[in-house]
Structure formats: C-alpha cells, structure tokens
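Structure (tokenized):
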C-alpha cells in the first residue's frame, strides 16, 4: 500500500502564488518520498476537541500506524519529521495513517514553525477524505497567515476556500499551532489555533470503504536546501 503523496507544479489550481496564494507544486501521498523537513517538540492538546477519542499519537514510537521512512517521514520521539526536497516551484507531501479510517471526525494536527518558515512559505495541516493518492481533501495553515481548504481530484487541485491574515500563525519557535477540520457527511469546518475560520456545506459524503486521513506539509516557494517544520501530535475525536 502506498501512503505517501507528492505534489507537483499545479498545486492547487495551476496559478502562481502571487495570483492565488497557492503553491505551484503537485502532490504526493507518503509511504515513501523525498521532501521538506518537519521536526518535533512536546505534544500539545488541540483546544476545543471533545467527544470520544478515535485516535491519538504524539509520535513516541513506531507503533502508531504511520509508515516511517528515512526518505520522507522520520520518527524523532516525541514527534516526527516530514522531508520535502528543494524544488523550483515549491513542494508538498501527504502522509497517510495506515491502520484506521474515518468518514467523519474532528481531525487535528499540531506543529511549530521554524525561523525559516516565512522564507519558504512553509505550511502544514490535515489531509482527510482520502480515497487514494489522487483523491483527497486538505486544510492547511502557513507561516504567513494563509489558511486554505482544497480538494485534490483525479490529479487536479480544486481550490475551495482561502484566507490570509497577518499574525494568524504564531511564529514563536516554542509556540504550538493547531490545524483542525471538523468533517461531517455534509459539512466541513476549518479551525486554526482555536478560531473557527470557515464552515462550508458539501455534498453528502458518498458511501466509500476506508476513507483515509493524515498529515499534509508544503513549501510554497523555491528552496535550495532541506527545510524543517515541527510536528507534535495528531488527534481524532468524534
């Protein structure tokens, strides 16, 4: 089974970052691939999550259900590193959780932006409703205050919603940022650092066995060297 997605030159929407605020990169889901680096520190709970816990992981060992690989997803207990390569148009990666799947839930990933995050347009977020490596949804937050929701369908990025607000991301190297998506069969709510930013109505989710979920990471700008973002924890509640 492949659990890594890499994204290339048309992420999402096929326009430049200046035109739409999206990175010109094409996706790749992760079971193995090369990319930008994400490192990790102490885990922090996602504010506002409630209900029964469906899955929780602070990356203390390799038993959590992720596929660790020195090329793209590395355990650094507590935490994990996602590696993104230097590319002319930026790059991105999705890492899927392999042992559980959920149609609905409150998905949350926490991480820390490094001092270089602004320079490369670094961001991370939640990957969800993944049928396969060519069909899934992503909600991501970036160091420059951009937060977006996009769908990857049949190898094409479809922008759904985007906002950008200076100061929205906490760039303190000791601060934890949290990206959440509350996914219901007919609606999605995007939450960043405890603030609900957008709720959209969606078509009722079609019956499909094993919708996967995971972590998304990206750099929107060209990078000449490997780069790091700290990922701390991943939690899913009802």
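Design, position by position:
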């Amino acid at each position: 089974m492949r659990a890594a997605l890499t994204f290339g030159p048309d992420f999402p929407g096929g326009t430049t970052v200046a035109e739409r605020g999206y990175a010109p990169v094409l996706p790749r889901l992760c079971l193995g691939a090369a990319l930008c680096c994400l490192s990790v520190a102490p885990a922090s709970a996602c504010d506002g999550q409630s209900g029964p816990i469906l899955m929780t992981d602070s990356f203390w060992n390799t038993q959590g259900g992720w596929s660790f690989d020195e090329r793209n997803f590395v355990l650094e207990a507590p935490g994990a590193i996602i590696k993104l390569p230097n590319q002319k148009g930026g790059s991105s990666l999705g890492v899927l959780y392999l042992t559980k799947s959920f149609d609905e839930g409150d998905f949350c990933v926490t991480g820390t932006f490094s001092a270089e995050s602004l320079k490369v347009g670094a961001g991370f977020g939640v990957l969800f409703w993944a049928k396969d490596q060519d069909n899934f949804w992503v909600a991501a937050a970036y160091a420059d205050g951009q937060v977006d929701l996009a769908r990857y369908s049949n190898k094409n990025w479809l922008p759904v919603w985007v906002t950008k607000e200076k100061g929205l991301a906490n760039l303190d190297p000791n601060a934890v940022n949290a990206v959440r998506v509350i996914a219901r069969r007919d609606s999605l709510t995007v939450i960043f650092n405890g603030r609900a930013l957008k709720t959209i109505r969606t078509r009722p989710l079609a019956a499909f066995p094993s919708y996967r979920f995971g972590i998304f990471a990206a750099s929107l700008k060209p990078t000449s060297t490997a780069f790091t973002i700290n990922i701390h924890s991943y939690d899913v509640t009802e």
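Reviewer-requested clarification: Confidence is low (pLDDT under 50) at residues 6-28, 30-44. The chain has one domain: 4-237.
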